[in-house]
Amino acid sequence: MGYMTIDGIEVEFTDESNVLSVIRKADIDIPTLCYHSELSVYGACRLCTVENDRGKTFASCSERPRDGMVIYTNTPRLMKYRKMILELLLSAHCRDCTTCIKSGECHLQELAHRMGVTSIGYENKKTQYPIDMSSPAIVRDPNKCILCGDCVRMCDNVQHVNAIDFAYRGTEALVTPAFDKTIAETDCVNCGQCRAVCPTGAISINTNIEVIWEALADKNVKVIAQIAPAVRVAVGDAFGLARGENVMGKIVNVMHRMGFDEVYDTAYGADLTVMEESKELLERLTSGEKLPLFTSCCPAWVSYCESHYPELVDHISTCRSPMQMFGAVMQEYYKEPKKNGGKQILSVAVMPCTAKKAEILRGESKTDGKQDVDYVLTTTELITMIKKTGIRFENLDIESSDMPFGIGSGAGIIFGNTGGVTEAVLRRLTDGHNRSDMDRIRHSGVRGEEGIKELTFPYKDREIRAAVVSGLGNADELIKRIKSGEAEYDFVEVMACHRGCVMGGGQPVQAGPRTRAARAKGLYDTDINTQIKKSNENPLTVTLYNTLLKGKEHKLLHRNME
Amino acid sequence: MLDASFYEKTDEIIEQHTREECSLIPIIQDIQAEYRYLPPELLNYVAREIGITEAKAYSVASFYENFSFEPKGKYVIKVCDGTACHVRKSIPILDRLYNDLKLSKEKATTDDMLFTLETVSCLGACGLAPVLTVNDKVYPGMTPEAATELIKKLRGEADAEN
């Protein structure tokens, strides 16, 4: 607690852990390349350096705020330093901005522009390294890396994966997997969080944009899309709309105009997941076997469990993820010549997630040997495609998603937030469906940004003990507690990305606390506006179980584990 | 694939330390002392045994010049090219050795696995400049001619041993 003077203005601070946070609280966007409030303080980029009243300069990220401090953030000396730092960083950086995938959302580019770097007087003498395209999810280009270490700390401290780390030193220092392996050869789970924090184009999404354009132009191909819940609240701000605003109606419209034949809602797939997963939970509660039941919606979590806790793989739900359930159902539906119109079906999923790109390639993501989802486009790629068309997204009219798979319940929509799956399952297991029932679940402790949440919920004559985790490091901690006997649960929801899919590795980057909160609220607000709150009350679910799914529930909705 | 004896030896070495993250460097130093290099397979093995990731272990091992993932020769020659040695003409000594041993900056070890030639930035023996070491023995006040003689002598020693 105390007051400090920043550029002549008195600013109060409370529990801020460093001067940088106080400066930002005062609405001064002091530049940083290696600072993320989620990660440990690294102090490498020196861009946040400030000056005190005695002319001493120090990095504000690694200095505690003290009462009575007087600091300046924009003296001529500091401005000169910052510009010089950027020039030196750029001296060893690829300068092909116009052809870089990150152009426009590159933090380094933005800062160079802001600090007035107009020329770089140094030749780039850095050794050029090959680009690693081995992963279906991410691309690693060491020539664009500035060694800020954000990805390393994300992968290690937050996700407990540590597939990449620094290697060598000095001018040869590099962020790489051990022994210069490719990403595909590591334990990388494809969560894409490294990409979400990378301030340059060093880690980017392995895109499928071109092949989708080709399919859209092909008259013999019927392109079917499904849109995940978290996508709809992360597109609008790229077009000047309010962040977190649900723009599903505009997305459906723009995708139709781009040539997608049908645009469906993955929230419906989520409803199917809720039905199957709840059933599975009840079965396991009765038999008492393989508890806790871990959710299976998140492919990065499934990969993590396989490589780090293989003995727990049996505990993961056998349900396919909502995307895969949807994919399998859709393929089955379009088998009929009357429905596919004699055309080849191309199934595309628009997801907030890079790991989904790897998930579709797994053996268990196929039905009768055929991939159920052909391509995954991340939210970021969809935005890129929309921008290419020049269609003024912000002015578009809204359209409703296509039938017969266009209705999702509120329970399906909130899947995009951490706790969403649990909340949806609890709704399914609750008989009532009025506001007080929903509120009771809502206030049971499932909501909120915390990485680990615990709750108990009464069910018939017993209690269901549940935990909700987001972020793989948190999952790791929780599993250790479970293994040591310190904690016991019946149901554990795991999402690999902290705060859930709304903060997935395929979402637009540079999303700060306000954007995060707005995205989560966007989904909860959509739920409020949805009349059908429970997956089992979605009329489409009921119909489907009585028709297409009859006798095929297991084949289409569960993971095919051969 | 390494022979099982390598892993047995490594187990023995690990036992002499604690199974903690902080034991990484002492353990791999001992492995390198044993084999004159650090076999990559063993680094990964140690990482698993002490509970750290492969990437972390590689990060540490690749940081220090001292660790080598390539097998080294019987005689490791380190030519000092610190400031004092440099001004007292260490480079002609190095060039002579490159020439005599048919080595280069890229190829540090002879095919017969007898010699490895490296440069170091300072051996802390500036008063003896120019200086080189063979394994841990220091040779002060070197000249290119003395270097050629030294190689001959070491070759002779090695032949006599066989």
TrEMBL record, chain A:
It comes from the Bacteria. Its main location: membrane. One of its GO terms (molecular function) is ferredoxin hydrogenase activity. It is found in: Membrane. Residues 77-116 form the 4Fe-4S His(Cys)3-ligated-type domain. CDD domains: fer2. GO terms for cellular component: membrane. Keywords: 2Fe-2S, 4Fe-4S, Iron, Iron-sulfur, Membrane, Metal-binding, NAD, Repeat, Translocase. InterPro entries: 2Fe-2S_ferredoxin-like_sf (IPR036010), 2Fe-2S_ferredoxin-type (IPR001041), 4Fe4S_Fe-S-bd (IPR017896), 4Fe4S_Fe_S_CS (IPR017900), Cytosolic_Fe-S_CAF (IPR050340), Fe_hydrogenase (IPR009016), Fe_hydrogenase_lsu_C (IPR004108), Fe_hydrogenase_ssu (IPR003149). Residues 136-166, 179-208 form the 4Fe-4S ferredoxin-type domain. SMART domains: Fe_hyd_SSU, NADH-G_4Fe-4S_3. One of its GO terms (biological process) is ATP synthesis coupled electron transport. Its cofactor is [2Fe-2S] cluster; [4Fe-4S] cluster. Belongs to the complex I 75 kDa subunit family. PANTHER family: NITRATE, FORMATE, IRON DEHYDROGENASE. This is NADH-quinone oxidoreductase subunit G.
From TrEMBL, chain B:
[2Fe-2S] cluster binds at C80, C85, C122, C126. Binds 1 [2Fe-2S] cluster. Its cofactor is [2Fe-2S] cluster. Keywords: 2Fe-2S, Iron, Iron-sulfur, Metal-binding. GO terms for molecular function: 2 iron, 2 sulfur cluster binding; metal ion binding; oxidoreductase activity. Signal peptide: none annotated. The keyword rRNA processing does not apply. This is NADH-quinone oxidoreductase subunit E.
